[in-house]
Amino acid sequence: MRKLLYILQKEFTQVFRDKAMLPIIFIIPIVQLLVLSYTATFEIKQVRLVVVDHDRTPESRDLVAKFSGSSFYKITNQVVEYAAAAELLKKGKADQFIIIEPKFASHLVTDRKANVQLITDAINGSAASLMSAYATAIIGEYNREIVVAITPLAGQSLPIRVEPSYWYNPELNYITYMVPGILVLLVTIIGLFLGSMNLVKEKEIGTIEQINVTPIKKYQFIAGKLIPFWVIANIDLAIGLLLAYFVFKIPVIGSVWLLFGVASIYLVAILSIGLVISTLTNTMQQAMFISWFFLVVFILMSGLFTPIESMPHWAQIIDYANPVAYFIKINRMIMLKGSGWPDIQNEVVILAGYAALLFTFSIWRYRKTV
Amino acid sequence: MTERGNIIEVSHLVKKFGDFTANDDLNFEVKKGEIFGFLGANGAGKTTAIKILCGLSEPTSGIALVAGFDVGKYPDKVKERIGYMSQRFSLYNDLTVKENFRFYGGIYGLSSAAIKERTNYFLEKLEMEKTRNVVLSEIPLGWKQKLAFSVAIMHNPQVVFLDEPTGGVDPITRRQFWEMIYETAHHGTTVFVTTHYMDEAEYCERVSIMNEGRIVALGTPAQLKEKYQAQSMNDVFIKIAR
Predict the structure, then answer these.
(1) Cβ contact, residue pair B92, A10, below 8 Å
(2) How far apart are the C-alpha atoms of B183 and B169, rounded to whole Å?
(3) A5-9, A46-50, A295-299: least confidently modelled range
(4) DSSP strands (E only) in chain A
C-alpha cells in the first residue's frame, strides 16, 4: 500500500509537470463539450429551397409564401425551369426544390386537384426525410386552408383530437439530449488515451526497465497507472456537469452521487482497456492507432448520434460488449429522467463485471520481463 | 572478508531467440563482495545474460542462482536483493533528482526517513547538492550516470549489475565512477559490471570474456595476461576476440 502511494505521487508529479498535457486534460474536454453540444444536432433549421413556379398566380404565390413564412425555410432562388433548379441542387447550393405545375390555380378550381413536385437532396437520408416531412406539413396546412375555404364546415369537427405531451425534454431541445452523451464521450476519450499512452510511453523511453527490475508487484504498478487518470477523468466529469448546469441549464435530475458512482466503475473499465492496449504494444504510435480504432467503433455504435434500436440486429448484439453504450444510456437516464438505482442496476452490474474483468486482464497481461 | 561464498552461480545457462543462440551454455560463479568484469565485443551476449540474472528475461534452459534464489523461478525474490543500472539511461528525465530517489526508495520499501538519509548521503558524496531540485533532463550525462548508479544501490542490494555504466562518459567522470564502484564493493555489495574499456577491466578482481555467446576466458586480469602472454587486458581481448 505504501509502495502504491509512492507510485501515485510520481504519476501525479509527472502529469502536473507536463505543460503540454495539462491543457489536453482540462481544456480540451471543455471545448469539446461546448462545441459539440451545439453542433452535433440533427435538427434542420434552415432548408435552402428553390422554387420553380410555372403558374405565377395568387394561389401559387400563397403556397410559396407559406414556405417563406416558415422559420425552417429560406428561399434561396426562384428559377423558371427545372434544369436550373436541378443544377443548384447538384452544386450543393440548395437542399430542396418545389415545382408548381403550370395550371396549378385553375386545376384547383376546376378539378379540385392540383400537383406540386418536391425534390430533395437525399444524400443524408435522415435529413432528407426531415426536410420532406417539413415540406409535407407546410403543404398539408395550405391544403387544409383551401378545403376550409371551399367547404367551410370541414376541418372544424374532427372526431379525434391529439394532445401531445413531451416528457423529460418538454422543449424538444436537441442539446438536452446530446449533453449527457457528450459528457460520456469526453471522459471516455480522456480515459482511453491517457490509459493507453502512459504505460507504453515508459516502454518507449526505457524507464520501464528500471521499474521491472524492482520487486514491485504487478497489481501495484497497474493500479498506480490507473488511479491518477481515474481521478482526472472524474474531475473532468465534474467540470462537464457544472458546464451543463450553468451553460446549458441542464441539471442532474437524479442523484449526482449515483452518477459519479457509475462513472467510477465505467472509468475503471475504460482505463483498463487503455492499459491492456498499453501492455500489448511497444510504441505510442501503435497504442494510438489501436485506441482510435476502439474509440471510433465504440462511439459510433454507442447510440450517441443514432439510436441503438435502429441498428441491425448483429450490431445490437455487439453493443452488449460496448461499455460506452451502457454509460450513455445510464447517464441520459440519471441526468434527464432522474432514474434511480433500480432502473439502472442491470447495466451497472454488467459494467462492473467488465471493469473487474478488464482490470484483472491488464494486470495479467503486464509483463515484468522483456 | 573471510569465507567468501558465491552470490551468483550460473550453470548451463542457454538463451535462444528463435534460431539465434545469444547465450550458449554459460557456467560461472561470482563471489560475494567481488568486482566481476563481464567483457565481450558488441553482440557477444553480455546484456542478454545480465537481463536473465536480473529477472528481466527468462532463460531458455539452465539455472542461475542470484543472491540465493533461482532467478527463473523466483524473480521477485531476486529483484528485492539486487540493483540494476541499464545500458540505456532509465531514470525519469521529467522528475527532479530528489523525486527519482524518493520514487525508487519508495518502491524498494525504504522508510521515508531512510529515503531522506540515503538521498542526502549520495548528493553529498557526489557533490551534487545543488541539483537536488533540478529535473534530470537538465543535468549532464556523466552526472546522470552517477545518479543512476546511486539509485541502483540505494536499497543496499547484495549485488548490483551495471551494464556499460561508463559508455559515453568523460575520463574524469569514469575515474570517479570507478571510485564509487570500489567503495560499493568495500561496503559488501558485489559489483557485476560490463564494459568496453579494457583499462577498466584491469580494475576488476576477476573478469570473464564472452565471444559469440560463449565465455571463452575467465580469471583474474593477471592470470589472463599470463595465459595469453599479453601486456595488457587490451591485448588479451584482441587475441581472444579475433
Answers:
(1) yes
(2) 20
(3) A46-50
(4) 47-53, 73-79, 96-100, 116-120
* pLDDT band per the 50, 70, 90 thresholds, residue B16: very high
User: Could you tell me which residues of chain B have a Cβ less than 8 Å from any Cβ in chain A?
Assistant: 51, 54-58, 75-77, 79-80, 82, 84, 86, 88-95, 99, 102-104, 106-109, 135, 151
Residue B82 lies in a domain: yes
- pLDDT reported for residue A38: 80
Ranges of each domain in chain A = 2-40+177-365, 47-150
Domain A47-150 has CATH 1.20.1530.20: no
On whether residue B60 sits in a domain, the answer given is yes
Whether the model pTM is above 0.90: no
Domain range enclosing B24: 6-90+158-241
Which chain A residue has the Cα nearest residue B94?
Answer: A14
Decide: B26 and B62 in contact? Cβ < 8 Å: yes
Residue A78 phi/psi, 5-degree rounding, is: -120, 115
Distance CA B19, CA B33 (A): 37
3-state secondary structure of A1: coil
How many angstroms away from the CA of B83 is the closest CA of chain A? Answer: 8
* Total domains present in chain B: 1
- Contact criterion met (CB below 8 Å) for A73 and A46: yes
Residue type, A63: L
CB–CB contact B106 A6 (8 Å): yes
Give the tens place of pLDDT for each residue, A227-268. 999 999 999 999 999 999 999 889 999 999 999 999 999 999
Please check whether residue B114 lies inside any domain of the structure: no
Mean of the per-residue pLDDT values of chain A = 88
* Coil, helix or strand at residue A177: helix
Least CB–CB distance from B103: residue in A6, A18, A206: A6
Distance from CA of B91 to the nearest CA of A (A): 6
Task: Supply the ipTM of this predicted assembly.
Answer: 0.89
pLDDT digits (tens, 9 = 90+) for B153-189: 999 999 999 999 988 888 888 999 999 999 999 999 9
Torsion of CA A215, A218, A220, A222, to 10 degrees: 140
- Burial grade of A40 (CB within 10 A; 0-12, 13-18, 19 or more): middle
Min Cα–Cα distance to chain B from A20, Å: 13
Q: Cell 525474490 sits at which residue?
A: B77
**How far off is chain B from A15, nearest CA to CA, in Å?**
10
Determine, yes or no, domain membership for B152: no
Which of B112, B116, B6 shows the shortest CA–CA distance to B69?
A: B6
CATH number assigned to the domain comprising residue B56 = 3.40.50.300
Q: Do residue B56 and residue A370 have CB atoms under 8 angstroms apart?
A: yes
Q: Which of A259, A286, A267 is closest to A359 using CA atoms?
A: A267
